[in-house]
Each structure stands twice: as C-alpha cells, then as structure tokens.
Amino acid sequence: MAFLDRRDAPDLPDFSFLKRLARDQLIYLLEQLPGKKDLFIEPDLMSPLDRIANVSILKQHEVDKLYKLENKPVYSSSDQLCFLIRPRIKHVRYIAGIVNADKAAKRTRKYKIIFSPQKLYTCDMVLEEEGIFGDVICDEWYFYLLPLDDDIISMELPEFYRDYFLEGDQRWISTVAKALHVLNSLFGPFAKAYGIGRCSKMVHEMWKELEDENEGGRKERKPAAGHIFLFDRDVDYVTPLCSQVVYEGLVDDIFRIKCGSVEFGPEVTSSDKSIKVLLNSQDKVFNEIRNEHFSNVFGFLSQKARNLQMQYDKRRGMDIKQMKTFVSQELKGLKQEHRLLSLHIGACESIMKKKTKQDFQELLKTEHSLLEGFDIRESISFIEEHINRQVSPVESLRLLCLLSITENELWAGASADSVQSETGWLADRTGAWRDPDCC
Fold first, then answer.
1. CA 337 to chain centre
2. Three-state SS across 139-153?
3. How far apart are the first and last CA of the chain?
4. pLDDT per residue over 231-270, tens digit each?
5. pLDDT at residue 305, rounded to an integer
6. Which residues pair with 110 in a beta bridge?
7. Closest Cα partner for 270 from 333, 332, 339, 337?
8. Within 10 Å of residue 26's Cβ, how many Cβ atoms?
9. Residue 410: pLDDT above 50?
10. Helix 198-213 vs helix 173-187: angle between axes, to the nearest 10 degrees?
C-alpha cells in the first residue's frame, strides 16, 4: 500500500466505481439477447469476470449455463449462444466453426459475440471469410481497468508486451489510450502527464486526441488524482529479470498471482484440495507482510500466531454476556485470520523448500555480481552449472538475459562460440525456446 500510514497521505480514489461500471455494461450487453442463453467464456477472461460479476449475478440475467471456451465440440441445447472473448482470430474461427456446423445440421440459433475490450478489424474479416458475418451479433465490452486492490488497477492484458515489444503490433495502443481517457473522465482532470519511451509517447498522443474530441462534455471538479506517469517496459528490463525477495514477489514467483489471486495447492493447504486466495489489503495477514523481505516474514508470522492464541485465550474466565459478545463480534474474524495465517505459513514453507533447492543465495550473489560488473567469469560458470543441473529453464534463460543486458549485449571474456554453445545447450537440454512459459 502506498504511504497510507502517513498522516498527510491523500485519500485514494474510489476505484471500485470502475468495477461497477464494467458490471453494468456487461449486464446491459447480456440483456440485449433476451431469454435464456449459454455463455462461453475465454479462459483468460474467467478470473477478471469473476471479480466483476460472479455466477449468481450472471444467472439473474438469464445466463443458463457457463462454459470455458475450448477447442472442443459444443454440446449445448440452448437456442442462444453468447461468447465472451478477446479479439483473437483463433477464437473467431472457432465460433465460425460452431455456426457453420449448425447451418450444416439445419439448426437455427442466435449467436452473439462480445469482444473485450474492443473488436478489431481482423475479426470482421474472419467473420466475412467464414461466411457468417450476417449470422452473428457483435458487441464490445469496454472493460479497460480492473481494481485489484485499493491502490492497484490493472488492464489485465498479458499479451500487450508480446504484441508490442516483440511483434511490433500496435493494436493495443488505442486500448491503453481509452483506459487513460476513462481514468481522466472519472478521477481527473490530471494536472500533468509524464512519460518515457516511444510507446508512452504514442499512447499520450492518442489519449490527448480523445480528450480534445470530448472537451465540450468536460465538467469542472476537484481531481481525485494529480499526475500520470507512463513508462515503457523496455526502458528497464533489468528489474523484472532480477529475483524477487519480498513476500508478495516470491508468492508470484512460485505460485503465480493471476488477477490479484493465487491458488495454493495441497503442499500449502495440508489437504488434498487447492484453495484460491484473494491477495489484497482485506487480507490482514498478507497486507502486513506483502512488502517485507522474506527473511523477516517467518518471525512476523510466529509473533502473529502468538497474538492470535492470546486473543483466543481471552475466552477463559468470561461470563455468559462476555462470551456472547466475543462469539458475535470477534470469533468469526479470528477464525478467518487464523485460516489465512495457516495458509501464509504453508506458503512460506513451500517457498523456502523450493528456493533452498535452487541455491537461492548463490543466485542472488550472481545477480549482484552481474549488476555491479564484478566476477563475470564466476557468474558465467554459475549459469553453466544452473543449466547443466536443469534447475529451472525459466531461471536459466532469465540469467542469460540479465547477463546479456548488463554486459552490453556481449559476454565479457566469452567468445561468440561460447555464447552460441551456452544458448544451444539450454535449448537442447531443457527445451527452453519451445516452452511458452519462458516468454
């Protein structure tokens, strides 16, 4: 959390309004297809959708059954099918296959595609190529920003980096600009905008065009936020390539935080079930340790456990009235805190086991050497050993990238043959280049 403990800290904007806005628009789009309908949801949108509108809300608006959009035959008896997808060609072709299969079977149904956050021209082209352009209703769900915490909002566009920085595809630039336009409309006007990088410049220019077009509808009000800072990811590749050492970072590293939540497996829950946990400031235990260095976390959790036990022990010696008050006002909260404490302790133990296996301290030492420009030969030897032991293909590739950047694209003391040998060894031994999780 950003300086909320300071007395002079300004009040945060109410970002929950973004969630209500997205939910209301989605409900409106669903109601444009009256009657019972089955909803097919792209996997990448399932977690964000759950944060916006849960199953009970969807059921209230005549969504009969929910399906994950997969490359499998559709077994739905509904006469109305609704698809909630990203504007991806493979998904549009899949839907076209469903429609054409129904045509061949002489089955009549209504079809609606809701693109989030926007429909792209290529989607219309595919619909025309497949001969179903007039058979489907298309809409756009302007779901640009999702509040993950009181002071964190996310566009939930994981493909942005790959599309823009690797493929040179600029299709999401307008989406970011529209998201900024929404923020400015709700919480601005922002006094100043600062940016570094070519992408930031393009976004800013497009955002300003949107602002100029809507200048007439602007109302004078006190802004809830003062400034906007835009940074291109390629301005700083070093930071994400370094190992994370605070608790929240390590949870993301080991368990992967997706859409503000994490799924703890049996190794953490001490049962045969996995548990999905929302990680935000509402989790009192997590909120106190999220930014703590991992070496301090066990001590804090131990003290927290003792404090909880003391609160439980207060029950002893209570009279009936006091016990009734304790049960009605405190017990539920204590049980919830105890459950979360157990999960975070289990997560810490799991992190410790995995990092011990990976020689975490040696890994940090190698990273520091690369950043400071010392002991490069020893660092290269560590990376070679890391690859040979097949500890983690992703970690090995990350270290190679960090070495390349810190040594100005050249490996000091290593020949071109050595560089080719190391990268080739990584590919042959681990299949890193073929592993989509490495990118």
1. 25
2. EECCCCCEEEECCEE
3. 29
4. 999 999 999 999 999 999 999 999 999 999 999 999 998 8
5. 87
6. 80
7. 339
8. 23
9. no
10. 50
